[in-house]
TrEMBL record:
Alphabetized UniProt keyword annotations: Disulfide bond, Electron transport, Redox-active center, Transport
Protein name: Thioredoxin
Active site: C36 (nucleophile), C39 (nucleophile)
Keyword Disulfide bond: yes
Residues with site note (Contributes to redox potential value): P37, P38
GO biological process: cell redox homeostasis
GO molecular-function terms, A-Z: protein-disulfide reductase activity
Superkingdom per UniProt: Bacteria
Keyword Transport: yes
Assigned GO CC terms: cytosol
Site entry (Deprotonates C-terminal active site Cys), positions: D30
Cysteines joined through disulfide linkages: C36-C39
Length: 111
């Protein structure tokens, strides 16, 4: 799996509801896997955004290989999938790695 940092903590099937659905800030969940090259490409981008936007966005990652229930619950089939939650509801889905500027543009309307 990609290295977890303080900026982008890992959530699990067991902690997903408390960490994501009950979050006060919007939460961007990075559905990732250790065997996924695009996941490794986007990880540093997500870390930068997590630090820069910490006042208005929380970013977490979930390893799909060890947390199949959450992956199945949201129909995640491709890695990386970025799913943005606000008030416990998924409000935006983005599939695949992308550069930081594009990701920030895609998030602008929901932040």
């Amino acid at each position: 799996m990609t290295a977890t940092t303080d900026a982008v903590p890992t959530v699990t099937d067991a902690t997903f509801a408390a960490e994501v659905l009950a979050g006060e800030l919007p939460v961007l969940v990075d559905f990732t896997a250790s065997w996924c090259p695009p996941c490794r490409m986007i990880a540093p981008v997500l870390e930068e955004i997590a630090v820069e936007e910490a006042h208005r966005l929380r970013i977490v990652q979930l390893d799909v290989d060890t947390n199949p229930a959450t992956q199945a619950a949201y129909g995640v089939m491709s890695m990386p999938t970025l799913l943005l939650f606000r008030n416990g509801e998924p409000v935006k889905v983005m599939v695949g790695a992308r550069p930081k500027r594009r990701l920030l543009q895609e998030l602008a309307d929901v932040l």
